[in-house]
């Protein structure tokens, strides 16, 4: 809401409260910068008239993916083989590394620590020492 539309009594009340009164002559619009200036330039009539070159900017669909007919095979580029083996090879290597990674969960550590302490106190028998009684 601009201050020029504020009723006279409201601005008078603001000045009585100690708020500075801003007159409409002091209000300036900020300069257009960046994207706003670019959009304003695009909407000017001189640029719009010269930009339309009366050409068809639409390519009708041919029905072929990347313009290659289905009967032909696409030409292989030099980087495709390296990319294929590099991508899927590293994917396979990551799967193997994930399958053989060590178990570092807190639950496994706590179970091993509890078992070690119970064996040290003699509550659990030591699984390494096998005693055979018949």
TrEMBL record:
Looking at the record's lineage, which domain of life comes first? Eukaryota
Swiss-Prot/TrEMBL keywords: Electron transport, Membrane, Mitochondrion, Mitochondrion inner membrane, Respiratory chain, Transit peptide, Transmembrane, Transmembrane helix, Transport
Which InterPro entries has this protein been placed in? NADH_UbQ_OxRdtase_ESSS_su
Q: Where in the cell is it found?
A: Mitochondrion inner membrane
**Sequence intervals crossing the membrane:** 82-100
The principal location of this protein is mitochondrion
One GO CC annotation: mitochondrial inner membrane
Q: Where is the signal peptide?
A: none
Task: State the function annotated in the UniProt record.
Answer: Accessory subunit of the mitochondrial membrane respiratory chain NADH dehydrogenase (Complex I), that is believed not to be involved in catalysis. Complex I functions in the transfer of electrons from NADH to the respiratory chain. The immediate electron acceptor for the enzyme is believed to be ubiquinone.
Family to which the UniProt record says this protein belongs: Belongs to the complex I NDUFB11 subunit family.
Descriptive protein name: NADH dehydrogenase [ubiquinone] 1 beta subcomplex subunit 11, mitochondrial
The organism encoding this protein is Xylona heveae (strain CBS 132557 / TC161)
